[in-house]
Design a protein that fits this description.
about 500 residues; mainly alpha; transmembrane helix; Poly_Biosynth_Transport; O-antigen/teichoic acid export membrane protein; transmembrane
Length: about 500
Protein backbone atom coordinates (compact mmCIF):
# COMPACT_ATOMS: atom_id res chain seq x y z
CA UNK A 1 0.00 0.00 0.00
CA UNK A 2 2.95 2.35 0.56
CA UNK A 3 3.67 2.45 -3.18
CA UNK A 4 0.05 3.36 -3.96
CA UNK A 5 0.14 5.94 -1.18
CA UNK A 6 3.22 7.49 -2.80
CA UNK A 7 1.49 7.50 -6.20
CA UNK A 8 -1.56 9.14 -4.64
CA UNK A 9 0.59 11.81 -3.03
CA UNK A 10 2.48 12.61 -6.22
CA UNK A 11 -0.74 12.53 -8.24
CA UNK A 12 -2.19 15.08 -5.84
CA UNK A 13 0.71 17.47 -6.36
CA UNK A 14 0.74 16.99 -10.10
CA UNK A 15 -3.01 17.25 -9.99
CA UNK A 16 -3.23 20.64 -8.32
CA UNK A 17 -1.75 22.57 -11.28
CA UNK A 18 -3.30 20.27 -13.87
CA UNK A 19 -6.77 20.63 -12.36
CA UNK A 20 -6.19 24.36 -12.05
CA UNK A 21 -5.09 24.55 -15.68
CA UNK A 22 -8.11 22.69 -16.96
CA UNK A 23 -10.68 24.35 -14.72
CA UNK A 24 -9.33 27.82 -15.35
CA UNK A 25 -9.23 26.89 -19.01
CA UNK A 26 -12.88 25.92 -18.73
CA UNK A 27 -13.58 29.18 -16.90
CA UNK A 28 -11.96 31.11 -19.73
CA UNK A 29 -13.90 29.07 -22.28
CA UNK A 30 -17.06 29.78 -20.37
CA UNK A 31 -16.36 33.49 -20.68
CA UNK A 32 -15.89 33.01 -24.42
CA UNK A 33 -19.18 31.13 -24.60
CA UNK A 34 -20.89 33.91 -22.68
CA UNK A 35 -19.40 36.69 -24.82
CA UNK A 36 -19.33 35.07 -28.28
CA UNK A 37 -21.84 33.06 -30.31
CA UNK A 38 -20.83 29.55 -31.50
CA UNK A 39 -19.59 30.59 -34.95
CA UNK A 40 -17.20 33.14 -33.40
CA UNK A 41 -15.45 30.53 -31.23
CA UNK A 42 -14.91 28.08 -34.11
CA UNK A 43 -11.43 29.47 -34.87
CA UNK A 44 -10.25 28.94 -31.29
CA UNK A 45 -11.68 25.40 -31.44
CA UNK A 46 -9.59 24.68 -34.56
CA UNK A 47 -6.34 26.11 -33.18
CA UNK A 48 -6.58 24.23 -29.89
CA UNK A 49 -7.41 21.05 -31.80
CA UNK A 50 -4.27 21.50 -33.92
CA UNK A 51 -1.87 22.22 -31.02
CA UNK A 52 -1.94 18.67 -29.54
CA UNK A 53 -1.18 17.19 -32.98
CA UNK A 54 1.85 19.42 -33.38
CA UNK A 55 2.95 18.82 -29.79
CA UNK A 56 3.47 15.18 -30.69
CA UNK A 57 5.72 16.11 -33.62
CA UNK A 58 7.63 18.70 -31.61
CA UNK A 59 8.36 16.35 -28.67
CA UNK A 60 8.51 13.02 -30.65
CA UNK A 61 8.13 10.76 -27.59
CA UNK A 62 11.09 12.17 -25.68
CA UNK A 63 9.17 12.72 -22.45
CA UNK A 64 8.26 9.05 -21.97
CA UNK A 65 11.68 8.00 -23.30
CA UNK A 66 13.34 10.20 -20.67
CA UNK A 67 11.70 8.19 -17.87
CA UNK A 68 12.73 4.94 -19.58
CA UNK A 69 16.41 5.75 -20.28
CA UNK A 70 17.17 7.63 -17.09
CA UNK A 71 16.78 4.28 -15.30
CA UNK A 72 19.96 2.69 -16.70
CA UNK A 73 22.02 5.47 -18.33
CA UNK A 74 24.12 8.34 -17.06
CA UNK A 75 21.65 11.06 -16.03
CA UNK A 76 23.76 13.98 -17.21
CA UNK A 77 24.32 12.39 -20.62
CA UNK A 78 20.61 11.63 -21.00
CA UNK A 79 19.58 15.15 -19.99
CA UNK A 80 22.08 16.87 -22.30
CA UNK A 81 21.31 14.65 -25.29
CA UNK A 82 17.55 14.93 -24.91
CA UNK A 83 17.57 18.68 -24.40
CA UNK A 84 20.04 19.32 -27.24
CA UNK A 85 17.89 17.27 -29.59
CA UNK A 86 14.77 19.14 -28.45
CA UNK A 87 16.31 22.58 -28.98
CA UNK A 88 17.52 21.81 -32.51
CA UNK A 89 14.27 20.27 -33.74
CA UNK A 90 12.08 22.87 -32.03
CA UNK A 91 13.87 25.70 -33.82
CA UNK A 92 13.47 23.90 -37.16
CA UNK A 93 9.80 23.01 -36.67
CA UNK A 94 8.87 26.48 -35.43
CA UNK A 95 10.66 28.12 -38.34
CA UNK A 96 8.73 25.94 -40.78
CA UNK A 97 5.38 26.82 -39.17
CA UNK A 98 6.14 30.55 -39.28
CA UNK A 99 7.17 30.25 -42.93
CA UNK A 100 4.09 28.23 -43.95
CA UNK A 101 1.54 29.92 -41.68
CA UNK A 102 -0.80 30.82 -44.54
CA UNK A 103 -0.76 27.27 -45.94
CA UNK A 104 -1.40 25.70 -42.53
CA UNK A 105 -4.27 28.13 -41.89
CA UNK A 106 -5.82 27.03 -45.17
CA UNK A 107 -5.31 23.39 -44.27
CA UNK A 108 -7.52 23.71 -41.17
CA UNK A 109 -10.05 25.78 -43.14
CA UNK A 110 -9.19 29.14 -41.53
CA UNK A 111 -7.21 30.90 -44.24
CA UNK A 112 -8.51 34.29 -43.05
CA UNK A 113 -6.41 34.08 -39.87
CA UNK A 114 -2.80 33.06 -40.61
CA UNK A 115 -1.75 35.11 -37.57
CA UNK A 116 -3.42 32.44 -35.41
CA UNK A 117 -0.91 29.92 -36.80
CA UNK A 118 2.06 32.22 -36.06
CA UNK A 119 0.95 32.70 -32.46
CA UNK A 120 0.34 28.97 -32.16
CA UNK A 121 3.89 28.33 -33.41
CA UNK A 122 5.33 30.38 -30.55
CA UNK A 123 3.19 28.52 -27.99
CA UNK A 124 4.61 25.26 -29.32
CA UNK A 125 8.16 26.66 -29.29
CA UNK A 126 8.22 27.69 -25.64
CA UNK A 127 6.11 24.76 -24.39
CA UNK A 128 8.39 22.23 -26.12
CA UNK A 129 11.53 23.73 -24.59
CA UNK A 130 9.86 23.22 -21.20
CA UNK A 131 9.14 19.50 -21.71
CA UNK A 132 12.48 17.97 -20.65
CA UNK A 133 12.94 20.30 -17.62
CA UNK A 134 9.43 19.39 -16.48
CA UNK A 135 10.20 15.67 -17.04
CA UNK A 136 13.33 16.14 -14.92
CA UNK A 137 11.22 17.55 -12.08
CA UNK A 138 8.82 14.62 -12.30
CA UNK A 139 11.56 11.98 -12.47
CA UNK A 140 13.35 13.49 -9.47
CA UNK A 141 10.11 13.42 -7.46
CA UNK A 142 9.74 17.20 -7.06
CA UNK A 143 6.01 17.65 -7.57
CA UNK A 144 5.80 20.80 -5.42
CA UNK A 145 8.14 22.75 -7.69
CA UNK A 146 6.30 21.34 -10.69
CA UNK A 147 3.01 22.53 -9.21
CA UNK A 148 4.36 26.00 -8.42
CA UNK A 149 5.69 26.63 -11.94
CA UNK A 150 2.58 25.28 -13.66
CA UNK A 151 0.27 27.27 -11.40
CA UNK A 152 2.24 30.47 -11.97
CA UNK A 153 1.89 30.12 -15.72
CA UNK A 154 -1.84 29.59 -15.29
CA UNK A 155 -2.25 32.77 -13.28
CA UNK A 156 -0.46 34.82 -15.95
CA UNK A 157 -2.62 33.28 -18.69
CA UNK A 158 -5.87 33.95 -16.87
CA UNK A 159 -5.01 37.54 -15.96
CA UNK A 160 -4.03 38.37 -19.53
CA UNK A 161 -7.22 36.87 -20.99
CA UNK A 162 -9.37 38.74 -18.49
CA UNK A 163 -7.51 41.97 -19.28
CA UNK A 164 -7.44 41.79 -23.09
CA UNK A 165 -10.81 40.13 -23.70
CA UNK A 166 -12.76 41.05 -20.58
CA UNK A 167 -11.55 44.57 -19.74
CA UNK A 168 -10.01 46.20 -22.82
CA UNK A 169 -13.07 46.08 -25.13
CA UNK A 170 -15.19 47.88 -22.53
CA UNK A 171 -12.40 50.35 -21.79
CA UNK A 172 -11.94 50.98 -25.53
CA UNK A 173 -15.60 51.89 -25.89
CA UNK A 174 -15.62 54.19 -22.87
CA UNK A 175 -12.11 55.72 -22.93
CA UNK A 176 -10.19 54.92 -26.15
CA UNK A 177 -7.29 57.20 -25.12
CA UNK A 178 -6.55 55.29 -21.90
CA UNK A 179 -2.91 54.41 -21.25
CA UNK A 180 -4.06 50.86 -20.47
CA UNK A 181 -4.85 50.43 -24.17
CA UNK A 182 -1.26 51.05 -25.31
CA UNK A 183 -0.82 47.36 -26.26
CA UNK A 184 -4.41 46.72 -27.31
CA UNK A 185 -5.69 46.35 -30.87
CA UNK A 186 -9.48 45.91 -31.08
CA UNK A 187 -9.14 44.20 -34.46
CA UNK A 188 -7.42 41.21 -32.81
CA UNK A 189 -10.50 40.48 -30.71
CA UNK A 190 -10.76 36.85 -29.64
CA UNK A 191 -7.21 36.31 -30.90
CA UNK A 192 -5.96 37.66 -27.57
CA UNK A 193 -6.97 34.29 -26.13
CA UNK A 194 -4.04 32.77 -28.08
CA UNK A 195 -1.66 35.69 -27.42
CA UNK A 196 -2.21 35.32 -23.66
CA UNK A 197 -1.17 31.69 -23.98
CA UNK A 198 2.05 32.72 -25.76
CA UNK A 199 3.04 35.09 -22.94
CA UNK A 200 2.19 32.48 -20.29
CA UNK A 201 4.36 29.90 -22.07
CA UNK A 202 7.30 32.33 -22.09
CA UNK A 203 6.81 33.05 -18.41
CA UNK A 204 6.71 29.33 -17.58
CA UNK A 205 9.98 28.68 -19.43
CA UNK A 206 11.65 31.53 -17.52
CA UNK A 207 10.62 29.94 -14.22
CA UNK A 208 12.35 26.73 -15.35
CA UNK A 209 15.68 28.51 -15.80
CA UNK A 210 17.17 26.79 -12.75
CA UNK A 211 16.53 23.38 -14.30
CA UNK A 212 18.79 24.30 -17.21
CA UNK A 213 21.81 24.74 -14.93
CA UNK A 214 24.46 22.19 -15.71
CA UNK A 215 23.12 21.74 -19.23
CA UNK A 216 25.78 21.44 -21.90
CA UNK A 217 25.10 21.51 -25.61
CA UNK A 218 26.31 17.93 -25.94
CA UNK A 219 24.92 15.14 -28.08
CA UNK A 220 25.56 11.40 -27.74
CA UNK A 221 24.60 10.06 -31.16
CA UNK A 222 24.74 6.38 -30.12
CA UNK A 223 22.37 7.04 -27.24
CA UNK A 224 20.11 9.12 -29.47
CA UNK A 225 19.83 6.29 -32.02
CA UNK A 226 18.79 3.88 -29.27
CA UNK A 227 16.28 6.40 -27.95
CA UNK A 228 14.77 6.92 -31.40
CA UNK A 229 14.24 3.18 -31.85
CA UNK A 230 12.25 3.24 -28.62
CA UNK A 231 10.44 6.53 -29.15
CA UNK A 232 9.48 6.58 -32.83
CA UNK A 233 6.56 4.20 -32.21
CA UNK A 234 5.51 6.58 -29.41
CA UNK A 235 5.26 9.32 -32.04
CA UNK A 236 2.84 7.10 -33.94
CA UNK A 237 0.98 6.38 -30.70
CA UNK A 238 0.78 10.09 -29.94
CA UNK A 239 -0.32 11.10 -33.42
CA UNK A 240 -2.88 8.31 -33.51
CA UNK A 241 -4.15 9.39 -30.12
CA UNK A 242 -4.50 12.97 -31.30
CA UNK A 243 -6.30 11.82 -34.44
CA UNK A 244 -8.74 9.98 -32.21
CA UNK A 245 -9.20 12.98 -29.92
CA UNK A 246 -8.95 16.00 -32.20
CA UNK A 247 -9.55 14.95 -35.81
CA UNK A 248 -13.32 15.26 -35.60
CA UNK A 249 -13.09 19.00 -34.92
CA UNK A 250 -10.37 19.58 -37.50
CA UNK A 251 -12.28 17.92 -40.35
CA UNK A 252 -15.82 18.77 -39.25
CA UNK A 253 -16.39 21.58 -41.73
CA UNK A 254 -14.58 19.63 -44.45
CA UNK A 255 -16.96 16.66 -44.48
CA UNK A 256 -20.18 18.67 -44.15
CA UNK A 257 -21.91 20.20 -47.13
CA UNK A 258 -23.82 23.03 -45.47
CA UNK A 259 -23.75 26.84 -45.66
CA UNK A 260 -20.55 28.16 -44.08
CA UNK A 261 -22.36 29.88 -41.23
CA UNK A 262 -24.23 26.70 -40.31
CA UNK A 263 -20.99 24.66 -40.41
CA UNK A 264 -19.29 27.10 -38.04
CA UNK A 265 -22.37 27.13 -35.82
CA UNK A 266 -22.30 23.34 -35.50
CA UNK A 267 -18.52 23.30 -34.97
CA UNK A 268 -18.85 25.85 -32.17
CA UNK A 269 -21.54 23.74 -30.47
CA UNK A 270 -19.52 20.56 -30.92
CA UNK A 271 -16.34 22.14 -29.53
CA UNK A 272 -18.15 23.57 -26.51
CA UNK A 273 -19.85 20.30 -25.57
CA UNK A 274 -16.66 18.34 -26.20
CA UNK A 275 -14.99 20.51 -23.54
CA UNK A 276 -17.75 19.64 -21.08
CA UNK A 277 -17.50 15.94 -21.93
CA UNK A 278 -13.77 15.76 -21.35
CA UNK A 279 -13.97 17.20 -17.86
CA UNK A 280 -13.21 13.63 -16.88
CA UNK A 281 -9.88 13.79 -18.69
CA UNK A 282 -8.70 16.25 -16.07
CA UNK A 283 -8.40 13.33 -13.67
CA UNK A 284 -6.90 11.13 -16.38
CA UNK A 285 -4.18 13.67 -17.13
CA UNK A 286 -3.51 14.18 -13.43
CA UNK A 287 -3.19 10.44 -12.94
CA UNK A 288 -0.95 10.07 -15.99
CA UNK A 289 1.46 12.72 -14.71
CA UNK A 290 2.13 10.73 -11.56
CA UNK A 291 1.64 7.24 -12.95
CA UNK A 292 4.09 7.24 -15.86
CA UNK A 293 7.30 7.64 -13.81
CA UNK A 294 5.68 5.54 -11.03
CA UNK A 295 5.08 2.57 -13.36
CA UNK A 296 8.68 2.59 -14.56
CA UNK A 297 10.06 2.91 -11.02
CA UNK A 298 7.84 0.02 -9.83
CA UNK A 299 8.72 -2.29 -12.72
CA UNK A 300 11.66 -3.90 -10.88
CA UNK A 301 9.56 -4.79 -7.83
CA UNK A 302 8.45 -8.41 -7.44
CA UNK A 303 4.79 -7.53 -6.85
CA UNK A 304 4.62 -4.90 -9.64
CA UNK A 305 1.75 -6.62 -11.54
CA UNK A 306 -0.43 -6.73 -8.42
CA UNK A 307 0.32 -3.07 -7.79
CA UNK A 308 -0.68 -2.16 -11.35
CA UNK A 309 -3.92 -4.13 -10.95
CA UNK A 310 -4.83 -2.29 -7.73
CA UNK A 311 -4.04 1.05 -9.32
CA UNK A 312 -6.38 0.17 -12.19
CA UNK A 313 -9.16 -0.72 -9.76
CA UNK A 314 -9.02 2.61 -7.93
CA UNK A 315 -8.71 4.43 -11.25
CA UNK A 316 -11.85 2.85 -12.74
CA UNK A 317 -13.84 3.49 -9.56
CA UNK A 318 -12.85 7.16 -9.62
CA UNK A 319 -13.66 7.50 -13.33
CA UNK A 320 -17.04 5.78 -12.95
CA UNK A 321 -18.00 8.09 -10.08
CA UNK A 322 -16.92 11.21 -12.00
CA UNK A 323 -18.75 10.10 -15.14
CA UNK A 324 -21.96 9.67 -13.19
CA UNK A 325 -21.47 13.02 -11.44
CA UNK A 326 -21.13 14.79 -14.79
CA UNK A 327 -24.01 13.17 -16.66
CA UNK A 328 -26.65 13.53 -13.92
CA UNK A 329 -25.81 17.22 -13.51
CA UNK A 330 -25.75 18.22 -17.19
CA UNK A 331 -28.65 20.73 -16.93
CA UNK A 332 -26.80 22.68 -14.21
CA UNK A 333 -23.47 22.43 -16.04
CA UNK A 334 -25.13 23.71 -19.22
CA UNK A 335 -26.64 26.74 -17.50
CA UNK A 336 -23.39 27.60 -15.77
CA UNK A 337 -21.13 26.98 -18.75
CA UNK A 338 -23.10 28.74 -21.47
CA UNK A 339 -24.96 31.52 -19.65
CA UNK A 340 -27.25 33.48 -21.94
CA UNK A 341 -26.11 31.28 -24.88
CA UNK A 342 -27.25 28.08 -23.13
CA UNK A 343 -30.00 27.48 -25.69
CA UNK A 344 -27.56 27.70 -28.60
CA UNK A 345 -24.72 25.61 -27.17
CA UNK A 346 -27.10 23.28 -25.32
CA UNK A 347 -28.34 21.82 -28.60
CA UNK A 348 -25.47 19.32 -28.46
CA UNK A 349 -25.60 18.41 -24.76
CA UNK A 350 -26.78 14.87 -25.60
CA UNK A 351 -23.29 13.94 -26.87
CA UNK A 352 -21.67 14.56 -23.49
CA UNK A 353 -22.41 11.12 -21.90
CA UNK A 354 -21.13 9.35 -25.04
CA UNK A 355 -17.90 11.34 -25.21
CA UNK A 356 -17.36 11.16 -21.45
CA UNK A 357 -17.60 7.36 -21.43
CA UNK A 358 -15.21 7.33 -24.38
CA UNK A 359 -12.80 9.33 -22.21
CA UNK A 360 -13.13 6.67 -19.48
CA UNK A 361 -12.16 4.01 -22.03
CA UNK A 362 -9.18 6.13 -23.06
CA UNK A 363 -8.05 6.41 -19.44
CA UNK A 364 -8.27 2.65 -19.02
CA UNK A 365 -6.24 2.26 -22.20
CA UNK A 366 -3.53 4.54 -20.76
CA UNK A 367 -3.37 2.24 -17.74
CA UNK A 368 -3.22 -0.86 -19.91
CA UNK A 369 -0.44 0.59 -22.07
CA UNK A 370 2.07 -0.07 -19.29
CA UNK A 371 2.65 -3.56 -20.74
CA UNK A 372 4.14 -2.43 -24.05
CA UNK A 373 6.18 0.37 -22.49
CA UNK A 374 7.78 -1.99 -19.95
CA UNK A 375 8.42 -4.77 -22.49
CA UNK A 376 9.82 -2.38 -25.13
CA UNK A 377 7.01 -3.34 -27.51
CA UNK A 378 6.13 0.25 -28.28
CA UNK A 379 5.67 -0.62 -31.95
CA UNK A 380 2.72 -2.83 -30.97
CA UNK A 381 1.25 0.14 -29.13
CA UNK A 382 1.69 2.16 -32.32
CA UNK A 383 -0.25 -0.42 -34.34
CA UNK A 384 -3.09 -0.38 -31.81
CA UNK A 385 -3.29 3.40 -31.99
CA UNK A 386 -3.12 3.40 -35.79
CA UNK A 387 -6.01 0.93 -35.90
CA UNK A 388 -7.96 3.23 -33.61
CA UNK A 389 -7.09 6.19 -35.82
CA UNK A 390 -8.36 4.32 -38.89
CA UNK A 391 -11.66 3.67 -37.09
CA UNK A 392 -11.89 7.35 -36.14
CA UNK A 393 -11.22 8.59 -39.67
CA UNK A 394 -13.59 6.19 -41.40
CA UNK A 395 -16.46 6.62 -38.94
CA UNK A 396 -16.17 10.42 -38.87
CA UNK A 397 -16.22 10.62 -42.67
CA UNK A 398 -19.19 8.24 -42.73
CA UNK A 399 -21.23 9.47 -39.74
CA UNK A 400 -20.70 13.25 -39.59
CA UNK A 401 -22.61 13.90 -42.85
CA UNK A 402 -25.40 11.60 -41.61
CA UNK A 403 -25.67 12.47 -37.91
CA UNK A 404 -23.54 15.59 -37.37
CA UNK A 405 -21.66 15.85 -34.10
CA UNK A 406 -23.67 12.95 -32.63
CA UNK A 407 -22.11 10.66 -35.24
CA UNK A 408 -18.66 12.00 -34.39
CA UNK A 409 -19.28 11.33 -30.67
CA UNK A 410 -20.16 7.69 -31.36
CA UNK A 411 -17.07 7.38 -33.57
CA UNK A 412 -14.92 8.49 -30.62
CA UNK A 413 -16.69 6.03 -28.33
CA UNK A 414 -16.15 3.12 -30.76
CA UNK A 415 -12.49 3.97 -31.29
CA UNK A 416 -11.56 4.08 -27.60
CA UNK A 417 -13.59 0.95 -26.82
CA UNK A 418 -11.66 -0.93 -29.52
CA UNK A 419 -8.26 0.31 -28.29
CA UNK A 420 -9.08 -0.59 -24.70
CA UNK A 421 -10.22 -4.13 -25.55
CA UNK A 422 -7.38 -5.01 -27.93
CA UNK A 423 -4.72 -3.59 -25.59
CA UNK A 424 -6.09 -5.67 -22.71
CA UNK A 425 -6.06 -8.88 -24.76
CA UNK A 426 -2.51 -8.37 -26.06
CA UNK A 427 -1.24 -7.19 -22.70
CA UNK A 428 -2.40 -10.33 -20.95
CA UNK A 429 -0.35 -12.39 -23.42
CA UNK A 430 2.90 -10.42 -23.13
CA UNK A 431 2.84 -9.04 -19.56
CA UNK A 432 0.09 -10.59 -17.48
CA UNK A 433 -1.46 -8.32 -14.86
CA UNK A 434 -4.22 -9.73 -12.59
CA UNK A 435 -6.87 -7.07 -13.30
CA UNK A 436 -10.29 -7.58 -11.68
CA UNK A 437 -11.83 -7.29 -15.15
CA UNK A 438 -15.35 -8.58 -14.46
CA UNK A 439 -15.75 -6.40 -11.41
CA UNK A 440 -14.53 -3.27 -13.23
CA UNK A 441 -16.85 -3.92 -16.18
CA UNK A 442 -19.72 -4.32 -13.70
CA UNK A 443 -18.95 -0.91 -12.17
CA UNK A 444 -19.16 0.78 -15.58
CA UNK A 445 -22.41 -1.03 -16.41
CA UNK A 446 -23.90 0.00 -13.05
CA UNK A 447 -23.21 3.73 -13.50
CA UNK A 448 -24.66 3.52 -17.02
CA UNK A 449 -27.85 1.96 -15.66
CA UNK A 450 -28.04 4.61 -12.93
CA UNK A 451 -27.78 7.30 -15.60
CA UNK A 452 -30.61 5.72 -17.62
CA UNK A 453 -32.74 5.58 -14.46
CA UNK A 454 -32.02 9.28 -13.92
CA UNK A 455 -33.03 10.07 -17.51
CA UNK A 456 -36.31 8.20 -17.03
CA UNK A 457 -36.95 10.12 -13.81
CA UNK A 458 -36.40 13.57 -15.36
CA UNK A 459 -38.52 12.61 -18.37
CA UNK A 460 -41.56 12.32 -16.12
CA UNK A 461 -40.46 14.97 -13.56
CA UNK A 462 -38.50 17.60 -15.53
CA UNK A 463 -38.11 20.14 -12.70
CA UNK A 464 -34.43 21.06 -12.35
CA UNK A 465 -34.27 20.79 -8.56
CA UNK A 466 -35.90 17.35 -8.57
CA UNK A 467 -33.52 16.04 -11.21
CA UNK A 468 -30.52 17.43 -9.32
CA UNK A 469 -31.67 15.95 -6.01
CA UNK A 470 -32.30 12.55 -7.59
CA UNK A 471 -28.90 12.68 -9.27
CA UNK A 472 -27.21 13.31 -5.91
CA UNK A 473 -29.16 10.39 -4.45
CA UNK A 474 -27.90 8.09 -7.21
CA UNK A 475 -24.33 9.26 -6.60
CA UNK A 476 -24.78 8.43 -2.93
CA UNK A 477 -26.15 4.98 -3.79
CA UNK A 478 -23.15 4.23 -6.02
CA UNK A 479 -20.68 5.48 -3.39
CA UNK A 480 -22.35 3.31 -0.74
CA UNK A 481 -22.25 0.29 -3.05
CA UNK A 482 -18.54 0.75 -3.79
CA UNK A 483 -17.68 1.15 -0.11
CA UNK A 484 -19.63 -2.01 0.64
CA UNK A 485 -17.92 -4.08 -2.07
CA UNK A 486 -14.41 -2.64 -1.64
CA UNK A 487 -14.52 -2.16 2.12
CA UNK A 488 -11.31 -4.11 2.79
CA UNK A 489 -9.42 -2.16 0.13
CA UNK A 490 -10.53 1.20 1.48
CA UNK A 491 -9.69 0.17 5.05
CA UNK A 492 -6.04 -0.06 3.96
CA UNK A 493 -6.06 3.43 2.48
CA UNK A 494 -4.32 6.27 4.35
CA UNK A 495 -6.49 8.88 6.12
CA UNK A 496 -9.90 7.52 5.06
CA UNK A 497 -9.18 3.94 6.12
CA UNK A 498 -9.67 4.62 9.82
CA UNK A 499 -13.24 5.85 9.16
CA UNK A 500 -14.33 2.67 7.36
CA UNK A 501 -15.29 -0.22 9.60
Amino acid sequence: MSSIKKLAGQTLWYGVPTIAVRFLGYALNILLFWWYEPSSTAGITQIYAAIPFLNILFTYGLETSYFRFIQDHDKTKVFNTFLTSTIITTVLFTGFLLWQAQAVAGLIDFADHPEYIRWMAWILFFDTLSVIPFAKLRQEGRPRMYAFIKASGIVVNVLLVLFFIGTCPKLYRENPESIWLSFYNPLIGIGYYIIANVVASIFTLLLLTKEFRGFRFAFDFALWKTVMKYSYPLIIVGLGGMINEMLSRLVYTRVLDLPRKEELHQLGIFGANYKVAVLITIFIQVFKMGAEPFFFNQSKEENAPRTYARVMKFFVIACAFMWLAIVVNLPIIMRFAYGSNAAAYGEGISIVPILAMGSVFLGIYYNLSVWYKLTNKTLTGAWITLAGAAITILLNIWWIPLFGYTGSAWATFACYAFMMIISYQLGQKHYRIPYASKKLIAYLVIVTLLYLIHQLFVYFLPQLWLGTAFGLLLLGVFAWFILLVERKEFQKMPVIGKYIK
